[in-house]
Amino acid sequence: xxxxxxxxxxxxxxxxxxxxxxxxxxxxxxxxxxxxxxxxxxxxxxxxxxxxxxxxxxxxxxxxxxxxxxxxxxxxxxxxxxxxxxxxxxxxxxxxxxxxxxx
Length: 103
Known about the structure:
The structure is a single chain. By secondary structure, this protein is mainly alpha-helical. Helix 1 crosses helix 2 and helix 2 crosses helix 3. The longest helix has 30 residues. 2% of the residues are buried.
């Protein structure tokens, strides 16, 4: 089972590297930002998978309550906050109508 899981993870990374790296690199024009974006996507996917596994395991009785469950609940709370937080208008950039009309 461990070999199958390792093979699946390796093929996923290989697919991201082959298909995602070229497009992201063209958009970002930087290897540092490319690998940062790929790392962010992998971390985000890991976090979502942890939420699904921990909460699904609690509902079905397969997983016991642990520190990872607390981390999954905290991550879920953070994601829900970011999703439903109220919109605040940015007051940083102001254009007056005359300068906008000239441009």
